[in-house]
């Protein structure tokens, strides 16, 4: 039987380990990632609404409250879907803050009503502001139908997360998240970065774990594999895909990117999970998203233009490299991931080709509109993601400097 002195020492040791664990996972009164997700999504809507951001001029008339000359069911559906997550985010964040302030006390129904009203008012105000701003852009058209679709989408999103079935679904999602990913604010920011990465994979014109865009081989330009080395080494003709000067830099860049991304995922996972299984599942989902969007958007001859021998070699060698570094401690995985993400992004920028927007749009076979917004937004997200990941990984490494 332990005496009081031994028991107190044991309790202190356990408390010390708990404090270390809490610090490791990012516990504490820090800003949660929910507001960050709201900011990111709001910026996405602003970009999609005001792109290309040039050509501003005085509005000839204010047509928001008049029937538009041109409209389509697809545009209305896109506007509805775009604001549904916005309404859900605002309502969920408001309800979460109230729940955290009240503690175990039951949340009154008036809180849900306030959350719904605030969510809808926020969406209506944002949509009205952006539709009004579009009247000053020659390439955009203000539409009352768009504003109404935005508002209804926000109403639906807020309603879904506030009704009892929606709250139960969110609770199950939260339980699933805690079973598979570590607890803490830092993990939430990492999951936000992971969601941003998935969004960037929806553009099939961007090569998998590379930079730039695939090259349109249907118009007589360089070959179909996304690399900028073709004009350098072959004078603009299609290079042989197994040419070492063509293949090696591309494969090395993909290897570094895959290993860095896999290590990034391993830092978010629950310690009880097998890292290599989760990494394979997440990368397979990204690959499936790329393939599905390619089948939907790209011209038929370019469906697998982003899959070449360099991609296959890079994916395989990057995962094998990850299995070696995955055995290291948390801090050194963060350090290794930082180096690999930096090196992979830098080398990908060097070897990638960036065509003009007109060349990029020729890759697609999509007659329903909004293509320029989608292609430009996903490309910018893809370009910015390595920088955001570097900041996140560097912060993890610095905050865990006490780990031996």
Could you give the topology of this structure?
Elements (H helix, E strand, L loop, with lengths): L3 H22 L7 H18 L22 H30 L6 H26 L9 H19 L1 H17 L4 H16 L29 H5 L9 H23 L8 H23 L11 H17 L4 H22 L5 H5 L9 H29 L5
Helix pairs in contact: 2-3, 2-7, 3-4, 3-5, 4-5, 5-6, 7-14, 9-11, 9-12, 12-14
Distance between the amino and carboxyl termini: 33 Å
Number of helices: 14
Q: In this structure, how is the largest beta sheet organized?
A: none
- Protein structure class: mainly alpha
Describe the oligomeric state of these chains in a short phrase: single chain
Beta-strand percent range: under 5%
Instruction: Give the CA-based shape.
Output: globular
Protein model, in words:
This protein has 404 residues and is mainly α. 67% of the residues lie in helices and 0% in strands. It contains 14 helices and no strands. It has helices spanning 4-25, 33-50, 73-102, 109-134, 144-162, 164-180, 185-200, 230-234, 244-266, 275-297, 309-325, 330-351, 357-361, 371-399. Helix 5 packs across helix 6 (164-180).
Task: Summarize this structure briefly.
The protein is mainly alpha-helical and 404 residues long. It has 14 helices and no strands.
Key features of this structure:
404 residues, mainly alpha, 14 helices, 67% helix, globular, disordered N terminus
